[in-house]
Amino acid sequence: MRRILPGLLLTGLCLLGCRDKQPEHLAPAASALSSAAASSGATALQVDPATSKVSFLMEAPIEKIYGEAPNSVQGEVFLDSEDVAKSTALVKVDLDKLTLYQQKREDEKKDFGERAKNDQQNAHARTWLEISPDTPADLREKNRFAEFRITRLDQPSAAKLSALSGAERKFTAKAVGDFRLHGRSAPKTAAVEITAHYEGDQLKAVSVRTTEPLDAGLEEYDVRPREAFGKLAQRTLDALGTKVAKSAPLQVEFTARKR
């Protein structure tokens, strides 16, 4: 018996260690992001949450998960109309406004059923993100917002807005910066289309929408199965592979107005 007990203990510790093993490509931990410095020629604009929406579609072999977060974006944009590449922004998505819907099928040969909201799945998502009711209030507030700090616009289709004309001046670019989710941050790039709204020669607002998704990997941000706060589930993301995709391709749109 004395020989058996240490072996059982080591086995248990090994199993616990395997279960608590950190994802391989984990983004570094980060506190809330601050705004990037605005250029001297930038116009400050405030995001209007009522104009905003965030969505994604996670496709796995037997389940599709749709995420929708209307009116969830807040933050500020600093658009430099004479040197577009110097434009910056900090936008935040309120995950409390996120609702999931699903389409399921029995196997890969069957058709998907109707899209429907599953309350249990939504509760699980909040537990995975650690914004569920059992999460300590301070940590829950830290995890509540996903953030994208844009430090520059690469490859703008127009170098300056004075080269364009009209009440709506549209251009495309690559928004470069850092994306923070679940207390972790990693460099990201998003393809965007930006429409600058003018009254005469005065910039009044900008409308922004992604033209290609910003990809957020679940393992990258330590968003994984949890049974409750501080308690990982027995089943890993790999085990749920046919039901849950490993990344969320985010689509974002909003309008920001001059202060």
List keywords for this structure.
259 residues; mainly beta; Lipocalin; 14 strands; 46% strand
How would you characterize this protein structure?
With 259 residues, the protein is mainly beta. The protein has one domain: Lipocalin (Beta Barrel). Helices cover 13% and strands 46% of the residues. It has 3 helices and 14 strands. The strands form 2 sheets. An 8-stranded antiparallel beta barrel has the order 1-3-4-7-8-9-10-14. A two-stranded antiparallel ribbon has the order 12-13. A hairpin with a 7-residue loop joins β3 and β4. The longest helix is centred in the first third of the chain and has 16 residues. The chain is globular and about 60 Å long. The chain starts with a helix and ends with a strand. The N terminus is likely disordered.
Write the topology of this structure:
Elements: H1 4-19, E1 42-60, E2 63-70, E3 73-80, E4 88-94, E5 99-104, E6 116-117, H2 119-129, H3 137-143, E7 145-154, E8 168-181, E9 184-199, E10 202-210, E11 214-217, E12 226-228, E13 231-232, E14 247-258
Antiparallel strand pairs: 1-2, 1-3, 1-14, 2-5, 3-4, 4-7, 5-6, 7-8, 8-9, 9-10, 10-14, 11-14, 12-13
